[in-house]
Sequence to fold (165 residues):
Amino acid sequence: MNPNITIREILLSEIYKLKDMLYEAIYQPDEKDLIPRNVLEIPEVNAYIKDFGKRADDYCLVANLDGKIIGAVWVRVISDQIKGYGHVDAQTPEFAISLYKQYRNQGIGTRLMTHMIDYLRKVGYKQASLSVQKENYAVQLYFKMGFSIVKEDNEDYLMILNLNL
Fold:
């Protein structure tokens, strides 16, 4: 683990970077055939970042290396007309997490998740959720963090973390 990496809250002036982070969060099994960036315009995808920071439950942490954001984890309750892929109810925040490729598999995602879980417990959330493709290597991280599968379809898991444990 690089000791120069710090975990901190995102600054208002950095919120725009969540667009890149959201794109990085999309599981891309074939690096030769990447999903076009306009996927971020799909309402169910864009819901994770649209007007981020304006809702009471929006919270984001970033991994910072030498002044550069290299990863982020953020949560929000997405229960308006458009629901998030990990929607459970109007009280459960959904996770999104991403790291630039060159920083993956170094424990940074675990640090980000741990800090966010601690925050969610501290402010009194009972549970958190996420949706993940079954093929995504990150599924193992989510199991390690204590998430469990509550629903699945052919491609995805809906996972919940009980924060009262």
